[in-house]
Structure prediction request, 330 residues.
Amino acid sequence: MDIRIYEEDLEINNLSEFAVKSRYSKGRKRPEEPCNIRTCFQRDRDRIIHSKAFRRLMHKTQVFISPEGDHYRTRLTHTLEVSQISRTIARALRLNEDLTEAISLGHDLGHTPFGHLGENDLNEKMPEGFRHNEQSVRVVEKIEKEGKGLNLCYEVLDGILNHRGNSMPKTLEGKIVQISDKIAYINHDIDDAVRAGIITDNDLPKDCIKLLGDNGRRRIDFLIRNIIKNSYGLNDIVMDNEVKDVMYKLREYLFKNVYAGEMLELEKDVYGKYLGCLFDYYMFNFEKMPNQFKNMYLNGESKDRVVCDYIAGMTDRFAVSLYEKIFGSA
Prediction:
């Protein structure tokens, strides 16, 4: 029995007219024999979950570097929260949940160690800049599996690339991940900031709390329901304008009071130089790079590009250990 064909028929018969059907995917850059059990998007989800880059997310910073306590988010827990929110919305709108999940699980694979501090560090070093969404695509196309890549479907790559920035995903499933990413980090970063003592619940803008809810669970539930209500039956993913404005006001509050706050400035003083120093070291000592990355250089990639790839893939603890090994304790 070919279970994949049965699954594809279910999609065609039951999903929204606006959903991406796996049978009609634009496919992969390198054609492959279909699996007789899983659809193409289910295979992509599994490839991402079993990748090295996905496993490293558990030791990469979300916001707070080396936090004391076990309950702060990491890049992995953020990814899982985005996946949960995205799947809830996709299922309610009868869109392709497997595609949404694959995009969600892969969207942050290119994030650096030390969160946005690390991203800023590499952005200053690279002539063309550094953007983690573009790096996520490099991870799945050129770095994973010793340079062979995961050979993901076009729709998954599009969703990963366009989950942030000025370009919009070409699928509704990608648009769901784009907005779910914001819903997740706005609310769990508030939770972590309160836990860290940076802000209190009473500090949050009163109009935001009045409309969205007085805790993260209520806010996430409210935003999910608003998207479902406004998007059902439409070829778009939308929310009420007032709700969207208030959500972005809460986001602006975070940028001003948490991401650019005193505690993260102190962390910047400690960790802000690590990636830049490692980048300069390997540019001048390229022979000490791992063979996989030296081979990428021999195959035509620029030296700064492969040094950036190596450093961006590090976990926080590996970057700290390597820095101390090379330069001594900070």
